[in-house]
Amino acid sequence: EVQLAESGGGVVQARGSLRLSCSYSGFTFDDYAIGWFRQAPGKEREALASISRKDGTSYYTDSAKGRFTITSDNANNTVYLQMNELRPEDTAVYYCAGYDGPLIYRRWALWTEYDYYGRGTQVTISS
Prior knowledge:
Number of helices: 0
Helix content: under 10%
Largest sheet: 7 strands, mixed
Strand content: over 45%
Number of strands: 11
Low-confidence stretches: none
Radius of gyration: 14 Å
Structural class: mainly beta
């Protein structure tokens, strides 16, 4: 059984930084993708970034490019999302999700394409 768990959320002042962690277990093979999403109150869930466990390829949406960085520590089964220059509009619940198989450009940004989900971690940016 695949399990994912986010950690690292909290309250940070605007322009600060935060690093979220997604610890996972249970994948059978080495080819899978882990992605980060977020959902702000009253808004739809949006994709941020995703990374391939197999070769480290990563993709970002425009919301994440330039300020967020996704990395993978394969030895410790953890994917990180480093977030810099945070803004009040980054306030949201942040989720990680995973699916078996290669990181595919047209698939990675779709929440419903993932098979496994964490419960989320709250990030609040104060102005």
